[in-house]
Design brief:
19% strand; 6 helices; 39% helix; alpha/beta; 8-stranded mixed β-sheet
Length: 229
């Protein structure tokens, strides 16, 4: 369903996976899918394709391109270590600059209705795309969000966590609820990466399905709201 495209960004050209709604249907809106630390791999491309199948134009930028191109890491200790290195090498501001370029490019195409959905590290970036770029956002198990919880939301926000996530304590989830009472906070069975269907050590099918339903409901409501004059 999807294809590779190249985006112009402040950090230079960045590859992205772009997926369109089927059969030439008009898009219900646009969704920027924000990767985990493992790159825009088969899983992230599949996620983008899934939102396209639901009627949304989907774009998944390869955020690591300014420091390393064509990154697709394994879900193991080496992949995790390399992903952390790339996150640090890229830096927060360059990552947000790429997301801003995605927003601007999609809006220039006429996609007024725009949302971000991010996973893990991308979940934290999704939150910051809300507070700093004004975009409705869905954050799946964003483990680095707590230091930024004093930043005010600028758009609708959905947090989705795993009840057994060793990277996000119940106390941290409670901090999200307390700091962002206007956001929706859902806690699903399973742990970190419960949506990652290519990773049997972390995938929780029932939670992934429930989280997808919640995300689609959020997209419908948030983008309809965003479309009102």
């Amino acid at each position: 369903m999807g294809r590779d495209v190249v985006l112009a960004t402040p950090s230079g050209p960045v590859n992205a996976w772009r997926a369109e709604p089927p059969h030439g249907a008009a898009a219900l809106g646009a969704v920027v899918v924000i990767q985990e630390i493992f790159g825009v791999n088969a899983h992230i491309r599949s996620v983008a394709d899934g939102y396209a199948a639901a009627g949304y134009l989907s774009l998944a930028p390869a955020l690591f391109d300014p420091v390393a191109r064509h990154v697709e890491l394994a879900y193991d200790a080496d992949g995790f270590a390399r992903g952390r290195e790339l996150v640090d090498a890229l830096g927060l501001e360059r990552a947000l600059g790429i997301l801003r370029a995605c927003r601007d490019a999609l809006q220039a195409e006429g996609h007024r209705r725009l949302c971000v959905v991010g996973f893990c590290w991308g979940g934290t970036l999704a939150f910051l795309a809300n507070t700093r770029l004004g975009l409705p956002a869905v954050s799946y198990y964003g483990a680095r969000t707590v230091p930024f919880l004093d930043e005010p939301l600028q758009a609708p926000m959905l947090f989705q966590f795993g009840a057994d996530d060793s990277a996000i304590s119940p106390g941290d989830i409670a901090r999200h609820r307390a700091a962002k009472p206007d956001a929706e906070v859902l806690v699903h069975p399973g742990g970190h990466g419960f949506n990652r269907d290519v990773d049997p050590d972390h995938y929780h099918p029932a939670s992934a399905a429930a989280a997808r339903r919640a995300t689609l409901a959020f997209l419908d409501a948030a983008l309809r709201q965003d479309a009102t004059p």
